[in-house]
Design brief:
Helices cover 29% and strands 28% of the residues. By secondary structure, the chain is of the alpha+beta class. It comes from Gymnorhina tibicen.
Length: 147
């Protein structure tokens, strides 16, 4: 009987969190911020119910039949996403965003970096952040090389 080849699969889990933020760059003037971010630059901020879909990938374990135990993934997402972000003012309560504009792109990077610290090496495939039903950011850990 020939050896069975390993089967790869992707496993996704989603969570929803609520947070507020203000799109504002310290590198821009008040006028430039207002022009760039419009109503999202409101000094009092605005809120979203963010949906985050985390996808991991790997070989299906022949014994457990799983890429990863969903209970473990749920706990990692609780620690990496829900605890630092849910019901928070991103700009005031999350130190990362004191120097980084709290765009959905940067929220996705923040979540990716937090998950990378917890998940087994190389298993994280994709982080999707749905700011609204119409606005979605997908981040797969890609970086550009700065010379």
């Amino acid at each position: 009987m020939p050896p069975r080849s390993a089967r790869l699969a992707r496993l996704s889990r989603s969570v929803t969190f609520s947070a507020c933020h203000r799109l504002h760059s310290k590198s821009l003037s008040a006028e430039e911020n207002l022009k760039l971010f419009g109503k999202c630059n409101n000094p009092h901020g605005h809120g979203h119910n963010y949906k985050v879909v985390v996808t991991v990938r790997g070989e299906i374990d022949p014994v457990s039949g799983m890429v990863m135990n969903l209970t473990d993934l749920k706990e990692y997402m609780q620690e990496a996403i829900m605890e630092p972000l849910d019901h928070k003012n991103l700009d005031k309560d999350v130190p990362y965003f004191s120097e980084v504009v709290s765009t959905t792109e940067n929220v996705a990077v923040f979540i990716w970096d937090n998950l990378q610290k917890l998940l087994p090496q190389g298993i994280l495939y994709k982080v999707e952040v749905h700011e609204t039903e119409q606005n979605v950011v997908v981040y797969k850990g890609e970086q550009t090389i700065v010379e």
